[in-house]
Write a structure and sequence with these properties.
This protein is α+β, with helices and mostly antiparallel strands. The protein is 36% helix and 21% strand. It is built from 4 helices and 5 strands; from the N terminus they run ααββαβββα. The strands form 2 sheets. A 3-stranded antiparallel β-sheet has the order 1-5-3. The protein has a two-stranded antiparallel ribbon with strand order 2-4. Helix 1 (6-18) crosses helix 3 (53-66). The longest helix is centred in the middle third of the chain and has 14 residues, at 53-66.
Amino acid sequence: MDWNNRHITAILQNALAEDKALDDATTAACVDPGRKAVATFLAKQDMVIAGLGLIERTVKVFAEMDGRVKTIPDIAMNKQIFDGVRVAKGDQVAVLRHDARVPAMAST
């Protein structure tokens, strides 16, 4: 899957804009730009993984839209988990280390 496809990018931009991800007043007021954070992605239920590439692409699209995020995301994927693999509720899928504003605002 080409996650950099212009159609996927447009969908992500529209979704982030609709959710007002760039306008989260609490995050803007409380989280200093450049502060680092860690976000852990856990399976909410038993499922088959699909679309893992969207984690990195969503973070990058948010950063491009925001314009103030200058750091590069560090995403650690569990080597045993990839698209098509069954996971159980609570399994750790990925860990994101990045500017704290990005995980907070992109998950609104």
